[in-house]
Amino acid sequence: MRDPVWTLRRGGFTPLPPERQGGTPSRFTLWGIVNVTPDSFFDGGRHETCAEALAHAVKLLADGARILDLGGASSRPGAADVPAEEEARRVLPLVRELAGRRGEDPGIPAETLLSVDTWRASVAEAALDAGADIINDISGCAWEPRLREIVSSFRPGYVLMHCLPGTTPGTMQRDPRYANVVDEVARFFESSMAALVRAGLPEENIILDPGIGFGKTAAHNASLLAGMERFQALGRPVLLGVSQKSLFGTLLGLETGERGEATSVCTALLAARGVSHHRVHDVAAARRALVLAEHFTPWRN
After folding, report:
1. Cα 81–Cα 188–Cα 125 angle in degrees, nearest 5
2. One of 120, 148, 279, 288 is an active-site residue; which one?
3. Are 149 and 135 in contact (CB under 8 A)?
4. Distances in Å between the alpha carbon of 214 and those of 118, 127, 172, 211, 297?
5. pLDDT for position 222
6. Which residues of the chain have pLDDT under 70?
7. What is the pLDDT of residue 43?
8. Is the pTM of this model over 0.70?
9. Is the residue at 190 inside a domain?
10. Is residue 1 part of a domain?
11. What is residue 161's three-state secondary structure?
């Protein structure tokens, strides 16, 4: 079965040859994380200025990223709320800089796609106006319903992520419970996609993220990863976001900063099962994992 094509408002999202995405095999897409924040769980404070973030973004592209996922407010469990104005102040200059240099700067290829990690309608609207291609929303439009209107109007790529309903980053890890986490996340995807399509966002613009670590225990996360085929059967691409996650701390006793190898192993294992989109901090390591998955898996076309 061929992978579904993910269409973006600026044209078709199509595979690129490895030489045009830093050696990443064509069937895969790497999302490089660029956090312009002081408090993100892994890289908070490392790229706070626009110049630092821009330099990091160029490095991620050289390492094999096709998409840059830009964040101006930490969404880690327990994170403090950041006003929309502050989030916009952090992330919008970077969006404008990257969008303006795309195709003009040799370090920022024309095919680079810009994703903004936000659940706020006003930030999403401003980011899309500034040149972003994708909105990566951890809330599924639940926290600010006007966001559904924004993405339906602009028709960008949209990451529909599952987060435990009725929670926020500050509360999502307080004793999360599910009767069957795989079934509940799958039903969430089905109902949320239907609502987005009714609002005017084409289904082909949607990519699914089961939200590893967002209102889930380590056991919930493991079940979701083991049941990934259930989400792929919904006909949309799946985005895997396990980079440096606490899951590896619970299962392997690894501290933050020691989870790179586990991230790469997980990336290769899920890639071999057909997951084509991977959101990571260390793009070079993920690219190596995907090259191995590409060579060692008996792919069926």
Report:
1. 45
2. 279
3. no
4. 15, 24, 6, 5, 30
5. 96
6. 1-12, 39-47, 300-301
7. 52
8. yes
9. yes
10. no
11. strand
187's tokens: 């039903």
What is the predicted pLDDT for the residue at 102?
95
pLDDT tens digits for range 7-24: 664 455 778 899 999 999
Q: What is the pLDDT of residue 49?
A: 85
Q: Which residues pair with 114 in a beta bridge?
A: 68
Q: What is the CATH number of the domain that holds 116?
A: 3.20.20.20
146 located within any domain: yes
- Residue 67 is which amino acid? I
Tokens of 80: 């403090």
Query: By the 8 A CB rule, do 66 and 13 touch?
Result: no
Residue of 245, 259, 287, 288 with catalytic role: 245
Count structural domains, the chain.
1
Is residue 153 within 8 Å of 132, Cβ to Cβ? no
Note whether residue 73 is domain-resident: yes
Strand order in the sheet with 134-137: 206-209, 157-161, 134-137, 113-117, 67-71, 29-35, 277-280, 239-240
Give catalytic status of residue 287 as yes or no.
Answer: no
Taking the C-alpha atoms of residue 140 and residue 122, their distance in angstroms, rounded to an integer, is 15
Q: What angle do CA 42, 44, 46 make, to 5 degrees?
A: 105
| Ramachandran area for residue 253 (φ above 0: left; ψ -120 to 50: alpha; else beta) | left
Q: Residue 91 phi/psi, 5° resolution?
A: -95, -30
Q: Could you tell me which residues come within 8 angstroms of residue 191 by beta carbon, excluding any fewer than 6 positions away?
A: none
Please tell me the predicted confidence (pLDDT) of residue 153: 95
Catalytic residue list contains 245:
yes
User: Helices 218-226 & 181-199, crossing angle to 10 degrees?
Assistant: 70
**What was the pLDDT predicted at 4?**
46
* Residue whose entry in the numeric block shows the structure tokens 């990934």: 228
Segments forming the whole domain that contains residue 146: 6-296
